[in-house]
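Batch manifest, entry 17 of 40.
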Amino acid sequence: DGTDMIAPPKWSSQWGSLGYPPQGYASRPVVALNEGGWLEVFSLFQPEAATSVATVAHLWQTKTAEDQGRVSTIGWSNWSLLGDLGQTAIAYLAAGQNQDGRLQVFAIEK
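Output type: structure tokens
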């Protein structure tokens, strides 16, 4: 019912690293807003070998402190692998929220 949700934080003027991919090359990240109002980042990871399997991974915002219903600081999860795409040549990913609030990620072939 949404009563346990808290307001997402305001934008910060500080830049921070999201860490490094589990292995190999990472594509340009795509960002989507989840149903709770928090950001999730998706990227395609391709190990160095041209014949290797591409893997989709993501991370998401996490709250670290709360003050009067507003999050005062945020953090990020570690990268989490979602699954591999086989040896298909992927140009880029796209992500968005569907009507029921779940996020969907699409891999666009080259």
